[in-house]
Write a structure and sequence with these properties.
It contains 15 helices and 17 strands. The chain is α/β, with parallel strands linked by helices. The chain folds into two domains: 151 residues, Rossmann fold, CATH 3.40.50; 135 residues, 3-Layer(aba) Sandwich (Rossmann fold). The mean pLDDT is 95.
């Protein structure tokens, strides 16, 4: 088996074997997914707690929502299961403080798709995972890759804190954007990643192509880029071909292509949008459809070798399928993996450079 995978027991198995009460920290979609796995595996939930600001005497899934202090007063020793995503230093620090006092797990449930990322899942895909590990361009990428996989199996947050890299360091040391980039932003949201790029190019660029399928987000995006020259925004999803797709609009970043939706949205391929132009940087954060977006950029990837920034955390298989696909389309790429501040292993991204 893969030598860099040291965690062989999943957090689900550890929780199943627990004799202490288990309390879920957080509400919402993440909690529902975790509680569903608990139900399937016969893991008992003793209660729910939330951050103090969110406790208003209400209930969630039949449990009264408590403050942590209330549980600590009533129960001597218990296990905490984190059920929400944290991407800000203040809340990440708070989670670490809780982990110092209590056993804490962060179960990995896919953002999109089904199934669980376990040691057994890694054994099933051993050859692909090893191939990615061997193809990475530096030792630190290999450490990040190993830690992310061990985290996804075990739910132990120390694996993430050991390999967290700042956004600024990634831009300066890996992406190294110049003043004449043709930037393609897939999943442009409200323009936040365009803003990031321009911070490192002092506002200079050759052209920007931005795709955002959610109408509300697109409205914010167009407001942000208003009067910026050579910026082309499309209210469309990134895809492998030009077509229309069913789309579920949700709050914020969570909107996504959804087979069950009656709403349709335009879908475009990068190669079609660019025509004869060549991208120099392509960023992909498209809620689990990065594979299709890569195929839609295949001509540019194969012939122009643009720098790539690709999310690796939406589907279980992304962590090996996406690096191998990009390497297949263009073997000249150097592949790096970095994890930015986030619990769980969201904001784990692939960076491919010529």
């Amino acid at each position: 088996m893969l030598s860099f995978i040291t965690e062989t027991q999943s957090c689900w198995d550890r929780l199943k074997a627990e004799e202490r009460p288990i309390f879920i920290y957080g509400m919402g979609d993440g909690a529902l997914k975790i509680m569903n796995v608990f139900k399937q595996r016969g893991i008992a939930v003793s209660g729910i707690f939330a951050s103090d600001d969110f406790v208003r005497g209400h209930s969630f899934e039949g449990f009264r929502v408590h403050k942590l202090s209330e549980i600590e007063e009533a129960v001597d020793d218990f296990v905490v299961v984190l059920a929400f995503a944290a991407g800000y230093q203040e809340i990440v620090d708070k989670i670490h403080e809780i982990a110092e006092k209590h056993t804490l797990y962060v179960p990995d449930v896919p953002v999109v798709g089904t199934g669980l990322f376990t040691y057994e899942y890694c054994k099933e895909h051993e050859e692909q995972i090893q191939k990615v590990y061997d193809s990475l361009a530096d030792d630190y990428s290999r450490k990040v890759y190993a830690n992310i996989i061990n985290f996804k199996i075990s739910g132990k947050i120390e694996y993430l804190s050991e390999v967290t890299t700042s956004k600024a360091e990634i831009y300066r040391k890996i992406i190294k954007p110049g003043l004449n980039e043709v930037y393609v932003d897939l999943g442009a949201y409200n323009g936040d990643t365009i803003k990031e790029l321009l911070e490192f190019t002092h506002g200079k660029y050759a052209a920007i192509f931005a795709l955002e399928p959610d109408k509300k987000n697109f409205k914010k995006l167009t407001k942000f880029i208003d009067e910026m020259p050579n910026v082309f925004a499309l209210n469309a999803a990134a895809w492998c071909i030009d077509t229309e797709l069913p789309f579920a609009a949700k709050a914020g970043r969570q909107s996504a292509i959804s087979a069950g939706s009656e709403n349709m949205v335009a879908a475009r391929s990068v190669d079609s949008i660019l025509g004869k132009r060549s991208a120099t940087i392509i960023k992909m954060d498209v809620e689990g459809f990065e594979r299709e977006a890569i195929w839609g950029s295949a001509i540019n990837i194969a012939h122009n070798t643009p720098k790539m920034m690709v999310s690796l955390y939406h589907r279980n298989e992304d962590i090996f399928e996406l690096p191998l696909l990009i390497k297949k389309l263009n073997p000249a790429y150097k592949l790096y993996i970095r994890h930015q501040l986030y619990i769980p292993a969201w904001e784990t991204n692939l960076y491919a450079t010529p």
